[in-house]
Design goal:
10 strands, 2 domains, GTP-binding, RapZ-like, Rossmann fold, five-stranded mixed beta sheet, alpha/beta, five-stranded parallel beta sheet
Length: 296
């Protein structure tokens, strides 16, 4: 069976990094493919017996972006195992990346009016409006604050995960760094007892036994955890019935180090027993930010 990955998203969000990682992993990759050739390319790869292909499509690609959902559905009906990943980042991060690379935004010339190039902010806004409908339908990875290495690891784990009707991801984050753009459900754990105020526990994380034991003694933590687990378990089938391929449950605390990490680990452990592989993300520095799969 052909495994295909479609990388799309906002310019400057890391599509080139993701595509190079897939190329290194053995995928036949095409960058900036015109939308009108997308179905033909993947269908021919399927007919020719290729095992892995990856395509990057974005606002630079000539053709109707709005046609992509229809093309994706047609390819899946052919039997192609297709994953679509939308990369995004906040505007501040995008502007900073363009400042570092000193490259022009691909929409600059297209938005040129009366011989005056559009500003970078105008280009970013126009691109968000152009890709907005596509973003709402696909799996979003917020690359704000991620290094190139972290992004490569996240994409690698995502596309190599065993296929499921719905990929469930539990993600911890720090509210001081902002809520992840790709989160579908967000829970605020800042109301729970905080191990940060214990000098012994402060340098540890929610994955350390001492912190886990400290939090496990709190009835509030047990109640909070049970409520989230019950909510997700109850509504997960509904999300799957809505033909959703991915669901990201984000849990935040102040620093993203203790409470949110502990809760994510426990939830992934609970759901992994019944669903097989469940993905875990820790956005804050927990030794190193990472994504991994937890299996029963």
């Amino acid at each position: 069976m052909l495994r295909a990955v479609l990388i799309t998203g906002i310019s400057g969000s890391g599509k080139s990094v993701a595509l190079r990682m897939l190329e290194d992993a053995g995928y036949t990759c095409v960058d900036n493919l015109p939308v009108r050739f997308l179905h033909e390319f993947v269908a021919n790869a399927h007919t020719d017996g290729l095992s892995r292909v990856a395509v990057a499509v974005d606002a630079r690609s000539p053709g109707a972006i709005a046609d992509i959902p229809r093309i994706v559905l047609a390819l899946k009906r052919l039997g192609v195992q297709l994953r679509v990943v939308f990369l995004d980042a906040n505007t501040t991060t995008i502007v900073q990346r363009y400042s570092e690379t000193r490259r022009r935004h691909p929409l600059t010339e297209r938005l040129d009016t009366e011989g005056r190039p559009a500003s970078l902010h105008d280009c970013i806004l126009a691109e968000r409006q152009l890709l907005g409908p596509l973003r709402e339908q696909e799996h979003v990875i917020d690359t704000s604050g991620l290094t190139a290495g972290q992004l490569r690891q996240w994409v690698r784990d995502l596309v190599d995960a065993e296929p499921h009707p719905l990929v469930l991801t539990f993600e911890s984050f720090a509210y001081k760094s902002g809520v992840p753009l790709g989160a579908d459900l967000v829970f605020d754990a800042r109301c729970l007892p905080n191990p940060f105020y214990d000098p012994v526990l402060r340098p540890l994380t929610g994955r350390d036994e001492a912190v886990a034991n400290w939090l496990a003694k709190s009835p509030l933590v047990h109640e909070f955890l049970a409520d989230i687990e019950g909510f997700v378990a109850r509504w997960l089938p509904r999300y799957a019935q809505d033909t959703r391929a991915y669901l990201t449950v984000a849990i935040g605390c102040t620093g993203g180090q203790h409470r949110s990490v502990y809760l994510v680990e426990r939830l992934a452990e609970a759901f992994g027993k019944h669903r097989g592989a469940v993905l875990i993300r820790h956005r804050a520095q927990v030794g190193a930010a990472f994504l991994r799969a937890v299996e029963a």
